[in-house]
Design goal:
With about 325 residues, this protein is of the alpha/beta class. It is built from 10 helices and 7 strands. The strands form 2 sheets. A 5-stranded mixed sheet has the order 3-4-5-6-7. The radius of gyration is 20 Å and the shape is globular.
Amino acid sequence: MQNQTGSQATAYKTELIRRYWDYQEVHFPAREKFFDQPRAEGIRPPVFRREEAWRNVIVSPEATSQEIQSVLAFVPAGERHKWFRSMNSSQALTQSVFGNLAVYGFLHHLAELQSDEGQSLFGEAQGSSPSFQMEFKVNHLGEPRSTSLDGYISGDYRVAIECKFTEMEFGACSRPRLTPRDSKYELEYCNGSYSRQRARLERCSLSSIGVLYWRYVPLLFKWQSAKDLLPCPLNKNYQLVRNVLAIGTKADGSVSIDDGHVLVIYDERNPAFQEVGSALAAYRETQTALRIPTMLRKCSWQRITEHIRRCGSLPWLTEQLALKYGL
């Protein structure tokens, strides 16, 4: 089954790469001006030159300079992910969709959609443009590096938006991947279990350096913090759990299971999000462990794009999403 999933993933990515190069040929015929290694067809996705990176975000062909800057402002250059310049970038896709909906005042249309599980996509959140941010920093979990939410709707009811595209998994905990060459190895290496290791008093190596995950996990999840867990439930579900904690906890230390949820957006074609896929398995495990499972919801890029298309809000956007990504 693993080999089959691997071949499906290869076919999925190969088809996208073919589409990207076709898109480049039509929309950026002067390829040497805009792209690194501009003639690497079939090998990898097109990658924009650093100074042209903003062009990976879809903007209206009739947009004013101010409108373009408003869309781009959602992700300042310093907040761009490592692979933002690649056409595979989920961050650039997210900025193209949500940035334009917010700038042109159509974000509320997505509130009409339901998640795959049948709940409102935004719950009780207004989903208005002024309440939307990208790369929102969560600073109250004691993390050395703050959780950054792909998308965030603020207010009395909050929504964290986690956007995936070609990624084959959610982010895992980095501590089991430390090696003796890492400066943190002696103090923070973990074998993937929630248990006392290496003479630490805490079961979680992150707890031992002041990270507050396990202060809140038992309040939002069914996982218990007072006993060993093998494997640690945060190991493979780390990114999803961080998103839930970001929404379920507040700066004053209070916890609420009723004031927000996490929305995962994914590509239906990605084998990792199909049956027996690793990302879907992590999603289901995390959702099942929640005390209130509706705190975690999902919806595909395809359903979102089709809804925008039916609303007739930004026809140029849905046209470009179809051409570039096949959405």
